[in-house]
Amino acid sequence: MEIGNKIIYITLCYCFARHGLKQFRNGWADGPAYITQCPVQTGKSYVYNITVTGQRGTLWWHAHILWLRATVYGAIVIMPEKGTPFPFPQPYMETNIVLGEWWNQDVERIVNEANKLGLPPLPSDAHTINGKPGPLFPCSEKYTFAMEVEYGKTYLLRIINAALNDELFFAIAGHSMTVVEIDAVYVKPFTTQAILITPGQTTNVLIKADRPPNRYFMAARAFEDAPITVDNKTATAILQYRGIPNTVLPTLPLLPASNDTKFALSYNSKLKSLNTPQFPANVPLQIDRHLFYTIGLGMNKCPTCQNGTQVVASLNNITFVMPKVGLLQAHYFNTSGVFRTDFPDKPPTPFNYTGAPLTASLGTTTGTRLTKLAFNSTVEVVLQDTNLLFVESHPFHLHGFNFFVVGTGIGNFDPQKDPAKFNLVDPPERNTVGVPTGGWIAFRFRADNPGVWFMHCHLELHTMWGLKMAFVVENGKSAEESVLPPPKDLPPC
After folding, report:
1. Structural contact between residues 48 and 10, judged by C-beta atoms closer than 8 angstroms
2. In this structure, which of 40, 92, 220, 441 has its CB flanked by the most CB atoms within 10 Å?
3. Which domain of life is it from (predicted)?
4. Neighbours of 56 (CB within 10 A)
5. Which of 28, 19, 51 is nearest to 484 (CA)?
6. How would you classify the pairing of strands 451-457 and 439-447?
7. Edge-to-edge, what's the strand order for the sheet holding 403-410?
8. Of 5-14, 121-130, 225-234, where does mean pLDDT reach its minimum?
9. Contact 103, 110 (CB under 8 A)
10. pLDDT per residue over 415-456, tens digit each?
11. CA 377 from centroid of its chain's CA atoms
């Protein structure tokens, strides 16, 4: 698709998100179930009417109800306007690389059984590259994605992490990568031997086929620096130089260790917006609303569960309860009793967030509570990991907006000292950001898109446990600054 006011019609079933598409005033096409629409019922259809404006680059779409995005996802590639070159060397060819997870059993059955016990579901059985796990698994060669390259040519890889629950390292044996774009926003190019990409993120890299002609493995493996069980198996695909026979055994890349926090922090620190006259970084400098949200795990009572409790997750100690009516619909028609707009701007009880593990009094409050934002107001959000049960990294995604990641750190955020170190010149602009294990991130955005917009951890496990909330962005003063009317075929609840 091309940038501009082009309208794209998609007919699908269930609920589907166009991850990263802003869809100004048109939350009806955003996709998350019970946030901007009710699910499309079996045998029915719903036309997502999408206008792409002011965006280009790599995004993606996926199912946005239950765990269906385990296998239901794909790339969205928005090309620049005709005649507009990339701000980096023109590649000879482009290839989409979509990273995913695979379960040998019906994933919904696994999730339902875990919920009955009040415990986490089993981790995936494999990671995949373009839907295939590669020859390190007991599969034949046909279950391996292969990309043929010509010596001396430069290639653009559009990499998407569609995995449900795993942040992933990705590398190519013998080849360095030059990062040029993240979440459909150009960055200052830098060269790296591996990338880190969280669920929900996209990363575009250039590679040059300048190594001795051979067959080289591309590989993806989980990054996890918290004491939890994840799928630690390595998925592989093949970068194959033209003319090299398939009988040649590929070589493996040297991926960072699965718990290499140092690499993760160093890699993320290199991500900076291009910030040129053509591609400016319009970082909000004056802030109207400061929000501080703690991320925590908890244990709530569950008489039918195995231990009488179930694991939950929360923001500011609130475990989000999904409504039975779409929140945008309730907001547009001013339907009472569906949600409240009293989500707290800061945690109800301050504590040493990343100190010694807290394993007592882990109950959370529950409710469908949202934060209301004035139209065109500037917002700063600090997301703080906590040591409730244990510390863990969390990739957070905000629907309807891009935001600037102005700061990050390990330990507790210090509101007196840390803002002085914020990058307000060329911070990375994203729609999904990883909160480091035992640390915090701060991001800023302008609330110029009216509607109801979901913010949630993009680890499906945590989203299921309630690690989510939503912003109600009020209408502006004119019709052009107000939510569009709902489409006539909006699915009923």
Report:
1. yes
2. 220
3. Eukaryota
4. 21
5. 28
6. unpaired
7. 365-367, 318-320, 309-315, 289-301, 377-385, 439-447, 403-410, 429-430
8. 5-14
9. yes
10. 999 999 999 999 999 999 999 999 999 999 999 999 999 999
11. 24
Task: Report how far residue 376's alpha carbon sits from residue 385's, in angstroms, rounded to the nearest whole number.
Answer: 28
Q: Which two tokens stand for residue 355?
A: 């100190």
Res 443: pLDDT = 98
pTM: 0.95
CB burial string 220-238: b at 16+ within 10 A, e below = bbbbbbeeeebbebbbbbb
Q: SS3 string of the chain?
A: CECCCEEEEEEECECEEEECCCCCCCHHHCCCECCCECCECCCCCEEEEEEECCCCEEEEEEECCCCHHHCCEEEEEEECCCCCCCCCCCCCEEEEEEEEEECCCCHHHHHHHHHHHCCCCCCCCEEEECCECCCCCCCCHHHCCEEEECCCCEEEEEEEECCCCCEEEEEECCECEEEEEECCEEEEEEEECEEEECCCCEEEEEEECCCCCCEEEEEEEEECCCCCCCCCCCEEEEEEECCCCCCCCCECCCCCCCCCHHHHHHHHHCCCECCCCCCCCCCCCCCCEEEEEEEEEEEEECCCCCCCEEEEEEECCEEECCCCCCHHHHHHCCCCCCCECCCCCCCCCCCCCCCCCECCCCCCEEECECEEECCCEEEEEEEEECCECCCCCEEEEECCCCEEEEEEEECCCCCCCHHHHCCCCCCCEECEEEECCCEEEEEEEEECCCEEEEEEECCHHHHHCCCEEEEEECCCCCHHHCCCCCCCCCCCC
Buried b (16+ CB within 10 A) or exposed e, 12-31: eebbbbbbbbbbbbbbbbbb
Cα 83 from chain centre: 31
Contact call for residues 80 and 185 (beta carbons, < 8 A): no
Tokens, residue 299: 């244990």
**Token pair listed for 137:** 């698994």
8-34 average pLDDT score: 80
Dihedral sign computed on CA atoms, order 94, 99, 104, 109: negative
Both tokens of residue 172? 């190519």
